[in-house]
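Possible regression after last week's pipeline update?

I re-ran a chain I had predicted before the update to compare outputs. Posting the input and the new output here so someone can diff against the archived version. Not blocking, just want to make sure nothing changed silently.
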Amino acid sequence: MKLKVNGIELYYNQTGQGNPIIFLHGNGQDHTIFTGITKRLSTTHTVYAIDSRDHGRSSKVEHLDYYSKMDDVADFIHELKIEKPIIYGFSDGGIIGLLLAINHPDMLSKLIISGANTSPEGIKKTTRFLLKVWYFFTRSNKVKLMLTQPNITDAQLNVITTPTLVLAGHSDVIKEEHTKSMAKNIHGSQLQILKGESHASYVLQNDKLYDIIKTFLGGDKNEK
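New output (post-update):
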């Protein structure tokens, strides 16, 4: 399905019934990376899996920035009248989730982010170097986004009141100290650094991510 929001069309897949949860994918991906977990969660939740702008079947754009992506999702929530959704965001999707929690403090019920960063400096030096080489040859707006944004401050993280779970792999492309600092600055957040996992391994192996999400949502009245 497609929905016009913020001057573009967002493609999304909707399944199930129950408390709403929205899945936001990473840079260069689309909603299909979540197919296994969304199918399982749809037994207890209304699940929305979105293709972000310039990804998948959503509108192509010439310029990318995280605030526009945040506005897309905020408008999506308003247009569909989704009440207090849970957001799960991977990588770029996690950055969007953080910006939503910062700028729309009453919008979400819970936030789960994995492999997210608050600045390009949060990415390990080797990975940043490879991204710069990639951008030199491709001039990709998606790669440029990762090299120049986001720029979320500790003071902005401090205002988040949404119950938040911060995830990262032990061998993530995001620096572990960066993830720990981010979690420390989100008051009351939970942090899990997952041993034996990379940036995406536990996300693509949906059974692992499913168990983590179900545990965090243990207080959800629709959980079984």
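Follow-up from reviewer: compared with the archived run. Residues 2-216 form a domain with the Rossmann fold fold (CATH 3.40.50.1820). Marking as no regression found.
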